Amino acid sequence: MADVKKIATRESYGNALAECGKDFPNLVVLDADLAGATKTGTFKKAFPDRFIDCGIAECNMTGIAAGLATCGKIPFISSFAMFAAGRNFEQVRNSIGYPRLNVKIGATHAGITVGEDGATHQCNEDVALMRTIPGMTVIVPSDDIEAKAAVRAALEMEGPVYLRFGRAAVPVINERDDYKFEIGKGVLLREGKDVTIIASGICVESALGAAEKLAADGIDAEVINIHTIKPLDEELVLASAKKTGKVVTVEEHSVIGGLGSAVCDVLAEKAPTKVCKIGVYDRFGESGPAAALVEKYGLDAQGVYAKTKEFLA
Amino acid sequence: MTNLELQKTANEVRKGIVTAVHSAKAGHPGGSLSAADMFTYLYFEEMNIDPADPKKADRDRFVLSKGHTAPGYYSALANRGYFPVEDLKTLRHLGSYLQGHPCMQETPGVDMSSGSLGQGISAAVGMAMAGKLDQKDYRVYTLLGDGEIQEGQVWEAAMFAGANKLDNLVVIVDNNGLQIDGRVEDVCSVYPIDKKFEAFNFQTINVDGHNFDEIRAAMEKAKATKGMPTAIVMKTVKGKGVSFMEDNAGWHGKAPNDDEYATAMADLAKIDEELAKGGNA
Fold first, then answer.
1. How far apart are CA A81 and CA A108, in angstroms?
2. pLDDT (tens digit per residue) in B190-206
3. A74 in helix, strand or coil?
4. Hey, which end of chain A has fewer CB within 10 Å, N or C?
5. Which chain A residues touch B if contact means CB-CB below 8 Å?
6. At the topology level of CATH, where does B3-276 sit?
7. Most A CBs within 10 Å: which of B127, B134, B200, as the mutation test of the A interface?
8. Measured between beta carbons, which residues in chain B are less than 8 angstroms from residue A91?
9. Which residues of A are catalytic?
10. pLDDT tens digits, one per residue of B43-101
């Protein structure tokens, strides 16, 4: 994959907000002193009157967004995932989720690819937290194209949405003419018959890489990109699991409560299948360059390949 | 409304509170009764609202940040005509649209769901901000408990409101002096309340929360003040109007039994008799 275009999904997020500003006059963007890092600064530059900096007070930002939504605004609140979903969990649940308000949460710097800042800022629990809130849509885009499409789709739908973006630049993998983004619809990226690899976010690229390595060993892997963790595309997951009989899930998130758990929830009930969950195994992250961490935690193509081989053996 | 009319209405609101909580066999009468005069003033005198059109555009908004005093809120809304007073007896019952804490999806007139302390004020600040963004002149009111202001989020919201000069926002603190574990100064003192809000760039007004002249004057002053939000700190008596509940932390979150209910309603009937003679205020 030489000369692949790389862009961090947080950049895509900021760009998408600015692009959507004109089409959605009720869109207002709130940040908590991280506009430079979350890239909402891009929107601020284009629409300064519709940008609200709440200072370092994420819980209050969440409540302000709720109040704005009751008055017809479509607020996007932004912070690092650790604060947007972690610190904020109860505010999101009670002030946004329970009243089913039309607030979108743009969480950046999710997962271990935060890198050098280390464990305090590497949120591997946000998908688990957000997915337990009734009525919450949870989206983890895999690249620039998907991230931008997700922001627009979130604005087009009514109700709360949690969107998860990353800090590190990642390859653009969805550049093709027939690309279509639909909330709740997984994407079959590669057909196969021996094993299904279901991935989200930056791990979609790793899954595709692993599938190529597996092919060299004569293993025919199917690869599915699940960008919407909730509502999950059960139909696609079930059909593929029934076809291959073995499922691997890959995510830059704790194996507790994220994509892997969501897949297991549906399989356990409707089509019991052996599953191997690849992710962060009930531990905190640590400081280091993002790529080195991805490798160490086995979330790169080689790691997914090795784990899948082990699983199939 | 004249003060006497407001007093009579507030007494009806109090009867509704006691009746609702008695019927629910649970709920929070103390802080509902302490704020009953304020609920009455807001919904019968102050706010630009229409019970026939609860979602009317550009109406004034209210957020009950101390959401556990929903019985007071519901009783004011019912007496104002948002829904039948009789329905107050369904409070907290399975299937009722009167949930234990305010739910904007369920109850006509409720502008924001609340109940998790510290969060309502932020939503009110957001509503005030929306008014500013849209250059509308509606006003936003929020009522907090004095114990509630121990929550840090209250001060995040206050800092934002002061910094953004939200002069369309009125934050009311019900200083009845009691919280679940005892007196607020013993549990974790919140005093001085007025100076705290002043430091957060609010205009602060201290009032007797059972005196309609003082409430009226404070609200008028708030409306006349540009460039800063107003905090009204109202001294009240928890359980006001019901003899055995007054200034008693034990009645924060407890329902009266049948005998206590009869006593409470007799106390309120006595107030009616005094008001019928022309009032005691």
1. 6
2. 999 999 999 999 999 99
3. strand
4. C
5. 28, 49-50, 52, 54-55, 57, 59-60, 62-73, 75, 90-91, 94-95, 98-100
6. Rossmann fold (3.40.50)
7. B127
8. 116, 119, 122, 153
9. 58
10. 999 999 999 999 999 999 999 999 999 999 999 999 999 999 999 999 999 999 999 99
Confirm or reject contact between B169 and chain A (CB < 8 A). no
Q: Model's pTM, two decimal places?
A: 0.96
Question: Look-up: residue for tokens 């009204």?
Answer: B232
Assigned token pair, A103: 């607030």
Residues of B in contact with A95 (CB under 8 A): 113, 116, 119, 122-123
- Nearest by CB to B123, which of A49, A55, A95? A95
Q: Which domains does chain A have, with CATH numbers?
A: 6-171 (3.40.50.970), 187-312 (3.40.50.920)
Give the neighbor-by-neighbor strand order of the sheet with A221-225.
A187-190, A221-225, A195-199, A246-254, A274-280
Q: Residue B278 has what pLDDT?
A: 82
> Using the beta-carbon criterion (under 8 Å), do A64 and B111 form an inter-chain contact?
no
pLDDT band at residue B281 under the 50/70/90 scheme: very low
CB proximity B187 to A under 8 Å: no
Burial class of residue A191, CB neighbours in 10 A (0-12, 13-18, 19+)? exposed
Distances (CA, A) of B227 to A263, A299, B184: 53, 53, 31
The distance between the two most distant Cα atoms of chain A, rounded to a whole number of Å, is 59
